[in-house]
C-alpha cells in the first residue's frame, strides 16, 4: 500500500501549533527542552507511554504539543506524520473544516491556500495551508480526515489535514459502468450530482490496508474501495431510501427509510472481510434495530458523548424526540433521552455534536435543526433550536440562509451550521453567507 507523503499540506504541524500558544508557552517549551532544568525529561518509559496515550485519546494536537515539550519525549513517542491515515489513533476526530463566510470557500484565492479547522469539543482554531483545493472538492470529513475528489479525473484522495499524509483511491467515475450492469443507468450530466451527497467511513486492517466505504445518498447504495484497487465496488442490493448515514468505528450506520410514515430501520454496514471481499457487495447488511415509527418520524443518526443516538420528530411533528440506539436494540422504547449535558446537536445533511460552551448563541442540552427544505415547526431556511429540558422551540437568528442573505454580523453558530452541508464548502455562491 502506498501511503504517499502529501504535497497538498505544506506546513509543519508541530511548528504551526506551537506558535499558537503565545510567548509564555514558547518560553516554557524552551525551558523544558533543556533536561538539566527539568526532571520531566527523565520520566520512565512506561509512564511516558501511559500519559501519551491518554493525551492522544483526548486530542491529536494536544499530543503534538506533548511531544514538543522536550527532545526525550519526542524521541520516545510515535510521530503522527507518516501514520496519520494508516493508524486510526492519529485521526483528528474532533476537528471540522471551518467555512469562512463572505463566499470565502476553501480554495478561494483570497485565502492564499489556507483553511481553518474548528475543534468541536474545545472550540480551538487551527489554520492549515492546503493548496490542494485549487483542483479538489470536499465530499466528506470522516474521522476528521478530508475525503477529496479531483475535479477533473474524479480520483478520490483521503487527506490528513494536519500531518499531510494522503491515501489514493480510484476515480469515482469507475462506479458508473458497474451500476449500469445492475440496471442503474445515469447520464454523464448527472454523474457529479449523484456523487455529491456521500458519507464516508474509513477503516484500516492489520496489514495497514485502508478501506473507504461511501454511502451514496441519491443512489441508495454503498460502494467501497481499498488502497491498490482500480475501481469502486457498489452493492448489488439497494436500500429503500438512504435517509441518514453516520461513520462510527470503521462501520457505516445508515437509516433505511424514514420519509413520513414509511417504516425505517438502522443498518450497520461493515467493511469487506479480508478473507472474502467478493461477498460484501451481494450480502445485505444486518439490521441493528427497527425505528418505532409511532414514536419517531424522520429519524437521523448522530454520535454524542460516545453514544449512537436517533433524533427525530414526534408523531405530531411538534416536538423533538431522542433515543439511544442501544435502548432500541434491547427493545426499550419507553425511555426517551432528555439530557445530553453541555452538548448541542446540529441536524442537517450531516449531523454533529458540538460543545455549547463555545457557542454563545446556543445553549447546552439542545438540538438545532438546519432546515434547508422546510417542514417541522419552522419554515425553509431557518435554524430552530429545541430545548430538550423544557420541550420548547427558539429561533437562533432572524433570517433565511437559503433564499436570502444572512443578516450580519455572522456568528460562530452560523459557521457551524454550514458544516452540516458539504455543498457550502465547494462553491463561491455559498447561500448562507451570500452578500446582499
Can you tell me about this structure?
- The chain is globular and about 60 Å long.
- 17% of the residues lie in helices and 29% in strands.
- Helix 3 (45-58) packs antiparallel against helix 4 (60-67).
- The chain folds into two domains: 43-76, no CATH class; 88-426.
- Strand 10 and strand 11 form a beta hairpin.
- It is built from nine helices and 24 strands.
- With 436 residues, it is an alpha+beta fold.
- This is KIB1-4 beta-propeller domain-containing protein.
Layout: helices, strands, pairs:
Blueprint: E1 3-5, H1 13-19, H2 22-33, H3 45-58, H4 60-67, H5 71-76, E2 95-98, E3 114-119, E4 125-129, E5 136-140, E6 146-150, E7 155-159, E8 165-171, H6 175-181, H7 191-196, E9 198-204, E10 210-216, E11 221-226, E12 233-234, E13 242-248, E14 251-256, E15 264-269, E16 286-291, E17 297-304, E18 307-313, E19 320-324, H8 325-329, E20 343-347, E21 352-355, E22 366-369, E23 384-387, E24 392-395, H9 412-418
Parallel strand pairs: 20-22
Antiparallel strand pairs: 1-8, 2-3, 3-4, 5-6, 6-7, 7-8, 9-10, 10-11, 11-12, 13-14, 14-15, 15-16, 17-18, 18-19, 20-21, 22-23, 23-24
Helix pairs in contact: 3-4
